Amino acid sequence: MTTRRAALAFVAIVAIGAGCGSHADNIETHTIVGTLTYPASSGLSGTRTCNGTGGYSDIRSGAQATLTDADGTIVSAAHIGSGTHGGTPHCTTTFAFPPIEIESGFYSVEISHRGKITKSVAELDADGWVFELSLGL
C-alpha cells in the first residue's frame, strides 16, 4: 500500500506541475537584437574593425546597451561588439539581449549615454525584434 500511495502522490505532483506549466507556456519570449551605425574615423580602408573617435569615443567594443520596459525599468543589459568598416564612411556594430518575457507594450534601447529609442511590441514584432539605430548619419 505504501508504494501505491507514493505513486498516487507522484501523479498528483506531476498533475499540479503540469497545470502550473501550462501558464508558463503562454508567456511570450523574444530575443531582441540590434545594430548601431555611426561615422567612421578618417583613414580607414578595406574591411576592418573600428571604434568611435572624437565625439563618438564612447562607442566602442564593450560599451553598454540597456533594454528598458514602458515603466523605465531595466529589463536586460548587453555589450556592443566591435564595429566593422566595410569600405563605407561609417561603422556598424551589433548587440543582442538574452531572451526576455514580453510583459510591456513598449521597449527602449540605449547605447552608452546616447538617449533611448523606443518601439512598441507591435513595431518590434513587425521589424523581426530588431532595433536599427544610427548616430550622426
Give the SSE map:
Blueprint (H helix, E strand, L loop, with lengths): L1 H24 L3 E2 L2 E7 L7 E4 L13 E6 L4 E6 L3 E4 L3 E7 L3 E2 L4 E6 L5 E4 H6 L3 E5 L3
Parallel strand pairs: 2-11
Antiparallel strand pairs: 1-8, 2-7, 3-6, 4-5, 4-9, 6-7, 9-10
Question: Which features would summarize this protein structure in a list?
Answer:
5-stranded mixed β-sheet; 137 residues; alpha+beta; 4-stranded antiparallel β-sheet; disordered N terminus
What does this 3D model show about the protein?
With 137 residues, the protein is of the alpha+beta class. The chain is 22% helix and 39% strand. A five-stranded mixed beta sheet has the order 3-6-7-2-11, with no helix packed on it. Strands 5-4-9-10 form a four-stranded antiparallel beta sheet. Strand 4 and strand 5 form a beta hairpin.
Q: Outline, from the CA principal axes? A: elongated
> Whole-number radius of gyration?
22 Å
Mean pLDDT: 79
Number of helices: 2
Physical arrangement of strands within the biggest beta sheet: 3-6-7-2-11
Residues in helices, as a percent range: 10-25%
Quick overview:
This protein has helices spanning 2-25, 121-126; strands spanning 29-30, 33-39, 47-50, 64-69, 74-79, 83-86, 90-96, 100-101, 106-111, 117-120, 130-134. It has 137 residues and is α+β, with helices and mostly antiparallel strands.
